[in-house]
Every structure is written in structure tokens, then in C-alpha cells.
Amino acid sequence: MSVEITFQLVREFLDYDAATGKLTWRNRELKWFANTGSWKRWNKKFSGEEAFTSHDKAGYRQGKVLGQFVLAHRVVWLWEYGQWPEQVDHIDGQKDNNRLCNLRSVTNTLNAQNRKKSARNKSGVTGVHWYEALGAWQARIKCGDVNKHLGYFETIQEAAAARKAAEKILGFHPNHGRGA
To answer: Among 11, 64, 143, 164, which is most exposed with the fewest C-beta within 10 angstroms?
Structure first.
């Protein structure tokens, strides 16, 4: 049986430092433990220590609360706003930076509009690639589920400018396409 992780529970178990983005464990009360004195050992070992120090496969900080794995940035959002977000975007792209000023609640589409440049990118410009059949640079953009062809261009600079203009019109975050 799992316990729902709520705003009240998170506030009871954790402290959050908005300046550093760190979560730390608070003293736990007897009610969370069998009456064996293990709560005293837990408090001696963990109280005041940083929480969520391990990382998941994608590199986000994670930890367990009452046996359930949760991501630190989502817990920070719950701790601060009292509700679970659909998704949380790290504005600067740094997965360890859980300062509130670096987090925003977003949809999947908005989250995708603040991605780093793909490691597979060969041109150096997100959304621009060499189109061999025409001997030109092609610019494309995807917004939501829609792929849009922006045109063919003689120079990579022209293709990059078309891509940046489309990003601005479609509301992409200025950090989109940052280094991989």
C-alpha cells in the first residue's frame, strides 16, 4: 500500500532552500515508524542532511519519500505551489539546478521548445541540415505534432535566420537549441 505524497507530507518531511535549490530532510515523528525507536536513529542519521542526492537515467535528482521514487524538481514545485505540475522545465537546461527561479510548469509542447541541441545535429544549428538532393540548406521546425518546412537556402546563415525567426513567432524559449 502506498501513501499519496501530498503538499502537507512534503512540508512535514522536507525543507527547501530557494537560494540553492536543495531539499533537506526534517526530523520525523514517531507516527511514521513502528514503535521501535527507529525514528530516533533515522533522525540522527538523516535529519538536516540533503535529500534527493541520487540521479535517474536522464540525470535528474531523485529520491524516495515513503518508499516511492520522486523527482526533486517535481517535489520542489509541490513544496512551493501545493500541486503537482504536468511537467517541469529547467529553464537553463541544468538538471541539477532546482532553484525555483529556474523551474517553470509547462506542457509537453512548451518543454520541447526549450530543448538543447541534439547530439546527432551535424550542422551546428537546430532545425537546419544540408539537403543533398537540391544542394541547399533546409530549415524546418516542429511545434507540437506539426512539422513545418521553412525553406531551402543557399547559406547556412540564411537557413539559421529563418529557423530563429520561426522559433520567435512560435514562442520557443530563447535557450532552445543551446549546446548539447
So the answer is: 64
